[in-house]
């Protein structure tokens, strides 16, 4: 009897996992097809590594999880830049640009928090506007280094990952 109960529980858990995997893969496929910047493999890998995404049963659930994921990444990148500033590990003229990047990340985090609240109230248009605003942060940070003709940005890789992390909930919100 215990074996039978265990088998049923295992099959239910496996079914939930399979459903979440299918939801993630299908959603990422549709999102990548409509947004050429979004990389399908990055989308799938990012979401399958996130416990909340793995338990999502709807596209809206994936929007919630991926928005939280993007906000967490913004704060990680902000802390990374603050460490560079604190350690003074930057070339001439870069301090002002790095400080601007920190401000951009703060604004982007606020925008994602507003987007999250908008999704909770099913106001997808407003969520889209604020996610799009957050999406500007990594590009604007990188532009500061290019415009100042400074050394290569020390946060290019982090900004590229952040861009992808923000593209995911933005693309998903456009599908709701």
TrEMBL record:
Origin: domain of life: Eukaryota
Keyword Signal among record annotations: yes
Signal sequence, renumbered to the chain: 1-20
Stored InterPro entries: Invertase/methylesterase_inhib (IPR035513), Pectinesterase_inhib_dom (IPR006501), Pla_a_1-like (IPR034088)
SMART domains the record matches: PMEI
Keyword Signal: yes
Keywords, comma-separated and alphabetical: Disulfide bond, Signal
Residue stretches making up the Pectinesterase inhibitor domain: 19-172
Record-linked PANTHER family: OS02G0537100 PROTEIN, PECTINESTERASE INHIBITOR 12
Family assignment from sequence similarity: Belongs to the PMEI family.
Name of the protein described by the UniProt record: Invertase inhibitor
Gene that produces this protein: LOC104724674
């Amino acid at each position: 009897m215990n074996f039978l109960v265990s088998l049923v529980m295992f099959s239910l858990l496996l079914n939930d996992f399979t459903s979440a995997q299918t939801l993630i893969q299908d959603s990422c496929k549709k999102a990548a097809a409509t947004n050429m910047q979004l990389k399908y493999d990055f989308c799938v890998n990012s979401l399958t590594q996130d416990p909340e995404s793995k338990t999502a049963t709807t596209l809206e659930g994936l929007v919630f999880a991926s928005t939280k994921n993007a906000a967490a990444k913004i704060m990680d990148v902000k802390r990374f830049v603050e460490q560079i500033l604190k350690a003074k590990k930057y070339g001439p003229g870069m301090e002002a640009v790095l400080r601007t990047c920190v401000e951009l990340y703060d604004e982007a985090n606020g925008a994602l928090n507003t987007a999250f609240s908008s999704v909770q109230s099913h106001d997808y248009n407003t969520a889209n506007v604020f996610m799009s605003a957050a999406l500007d942060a990594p590009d604007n940070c990188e532009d500061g280094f290019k415009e100042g003709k400074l050394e290569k940005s020390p946060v290019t890789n982090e900004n590229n990952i952040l861009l992808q992390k923000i593209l995911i909930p933005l693309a998903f919100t456009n599908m709701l």
